[in-house]
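#random but structural
TW: two for the price of one
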Amino acid sequence: LLTLHNSTVLLPSMQRLVNEFVHLFSRRAFVHWFVAEGMDEDEFGQALNLITDLRDLYNQVTKLPPASSDYFPSVCKPIGCVKKFNCVALRSTIMTQYYMSNPGTTDPFVCQIADNGV
């Protein structure tokens, strides 16, 4: 069962995943299986970069100031009909919201992390 949890509690799991990947890849463990199936070895480095970038993003969000009632009006702006994933800073958590709206509506809005330059 997979659940989405709006928390940065994923950081230790991500770090453990990175550590295990680096350990196994440094020993070239199981690489031959993936290469034999057509995967390029450069893709391993790209995958490591993606997960470390995601981990760093979660790390940055934990350092954001706590949310207050007057924080959101300055950060959130209406952008119309949204059909993509967007990260929203809430206290020390990161939240992925998916807005699916009918074409032509302008109800949904996306909170963008604007104050810290992310």
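TW: number two ↓
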Amino acid sequence: MSSYSYNRSQYDPSGIKSKVNHHEFLEVRDGADEYAAFDLERFKGDLMDKFIRDTEDIANENDRIKTDAITRIEEYERNNLNDRDFELGEGNMAFQRRTISEKVTGANKEFDIATKESASEKRRLREDMADLEDALRKVRDQLAETELENQNFQTIIDAFEDIQNQQRSAEMNAVRTVNTDLKDQIAKLEHELNFAGGATDTLNMKFGLEEKYSSAKGDFENFISEAEEGKKRIEDELANLRHKISQKKNENNILHKNVNDNESQINKLNDEITRLSKDIEQLKRKNEDNIRSLEGDRSRAEDDLIDANRKAADLKHEIAKLKILVEKTRNEIDYLTSEKDKARGQGYQRKIDEFNNVITESERRTKKLKDELGTLNNEWKDKVSRTSKLASSSIGRGEGEEVAKRIRLLTTELNNKNRELEDLRSQKSALEREVADDGSGLDEKINRQRDQLDELNRKYLASLEEKNGINEELTEQVRKLLDLNFVIQKNSEQIAIAKQEIEFLRKEIEQKSKLVGDLEYEIEQRRNLIIDLREEIAEKNLIVDELEQPRDEIETIEMLIREKDEIIRELEAQVRNKSKYN
């Protein structure tokens, strides 16, 4: 086996060809073609249609919320018709309704602003999708450039194969020439030794050997010049390959940097999505807790309001009773005035005057109570205007129950005092009739009956004072109850507003969930793009490694050239020796 066969390069161009036309590269190219065939305009149209449908659904939901709010307001007005017993008036109800309508309108404006912000966010996402499309087109261009470079590499590989075949053919021809020349020389030397010809034959043989030597020398010089030209051409091609390899390495470094940047951006997006998801969950839980709390407060407030309305009706009935009692007291005063002329004695007249003063004081207090009850409507309006400025107010259920319990207790005491007054009034009337009937009786009996009448008058006056005190306390409790009613009404308004805000927040949560889904889809697309870029970088690194193998081939060729130089020098030495011998 020759040294060329033993030391020839193990470079196999078919290996690079199989690595260049890798199945994964074909799949990536098919994916790029499929992306190029994607109808982007149709996708944008479908996306716009979906956005319009979502906008219409949101508008319909907004109209439904407005209708529901108006219906609840009307229902609230129907359930609170008993408030008119306190002379609230239509103007106050219209003011409340207008206030609630303004709040609903403000909430609708905020909802429109949120919808516009959502549309802006969707436009931004569409712009991001366009940027991703540009990035994919650039990747497709890079794939086309890579395919063109692979074709150039295949051309270079074919040129290497041609050069190797030519070198092997030239080497084989040179070896055959040298072998033939040596055989001819050996044959002629044997013929010369066997026959020992004359000088003419020696000259002819020398001339033939010189001619063959010149021919062999010319062939070897041509072979050497062709080898030098091939070597120079290979060195130039290797320099170009090294330049291309350095460019590919720079491109790979840029791609690595882009991949790292994309990974960092994806990590940031993942962190942002995680944070948004946590915020949405917390907001959702908070809103659900607020809804449950507001529902409970609304139920308790409605119960307290019903109790307050019922108690207010009872109080109105008690006021009617007080009016009847006042009229009856006036009749009694008239009767006592007529009886005053009949009475004799300064002491009795003084007692009657004291009794009249007490009756007048009672009438004055009754009138004062009536005036206070008449001004409750104005006080109620003032308290509503003050409490409407509060951001929020809470009603203690125990406070409402305590006020209701106190009102019931005072009502019971008032009824007891009324019964006592009725009893005293009956006894007093009976004694007065006895005095009137027995005017001509004994003085002792008259004095005794007058003492009894005085005692009854004192009890009657004490009972009237206690009744007035109870009336004052009852009035105070009624004021407290009305204050609680105002706070309940305010809380009902706050509950309606909170419900509407919760509906808006629920819509906002749904929109953010959609945005989170779109961002997750975008992250998945970028992750797939990074995987494709990594595969492309790995393939290009393999190509670079394979292109560096011709360096070993050049070293092998240089070693073969040195071996051929040694053979030529040996042949020249043999020729010189033969020339000297001849």
